[in-house]
Design brief:
alpha+beta, 2 helices, about 170 residues, 2 domains, about 30% strand
Length: about 170
């Protein structure tokens, strides 16, 4: 069987491009901390309000004994709940989301935080927010007619400011 030299060249170029793409993906995973979610945890979306972790009074910000922070949120048409949160900068923050209804996406612009929230599963992302300021939390997965109005506000403050807010009795900002 004879393969023309031009076809061999184009096959080599195609394989080279595919190899380059694989190298970029692996480089991103290893050097930039970009990787697929590894937390696989299921939950009954119809009984969220009865669950210990995602009951209405448990949503929001929780300070952990090791100094990290856990944020529990619920996504539902058409909003993230709670709507407003205050978080400390330079602190490990674990976001845990569940969906009440359909697939939602969550993205915080100007950060490395983005994931999908699938009904029946707990989505979990751990990140560190380095810069104080206001950040929108946006739904980036079309979820229905009110999709454009699905957002929350995250205010990032210095650790000192956050500690002061917590000692004044505002432990659950949300």
């Amino acid at each position: 069987m004879h393969i023309d030299k031009l076809e061999k060249n184009w096959a080599g170029i195609s394989l080279g491009i595919a190899g380059l793409f694989v190298a970029v993906i692996l480089g991103s995973a290893f050097f930039h901390g970009i990787h697929a979610p590894s937390n696989v945890e299921t939950i009954d979306s119809a009984k969220l309000h009865l669950s210990a972790e995602f009951a209405e009074d448990k949503l929001g910000v929780q300070r952990n004994p090791n100094g990290s922070v856990t944020v529990r949120m619920v996504a539902g048409r058409y909003g993230f709940y709670p709507k407003d949160l205050t978080l400390p900068a330079e602190t490990a923050i674990t976001f845990r989301w569940v969906s009440l209804d359909v697939i939602h996406g969550v993205h915080m612009p100007m950060t490395n935080m983005s994931t999908m929230i699938v009904p029946g599963y707990v989505a979990q992302v751990t990140t560190e927010l380095h810069h104080a300021g206001d950040y929108p939390l946006l739904c980036n997965e079309y979820c229905g007619m009110g999709h454009a109005h699905m957002w929350s506000n995250i205010k990032v403050v210095s650790k000192a400011q956050w500690d002061a807010l917590n000692t004044q009795g505002g432990a659950n900002h949300g």
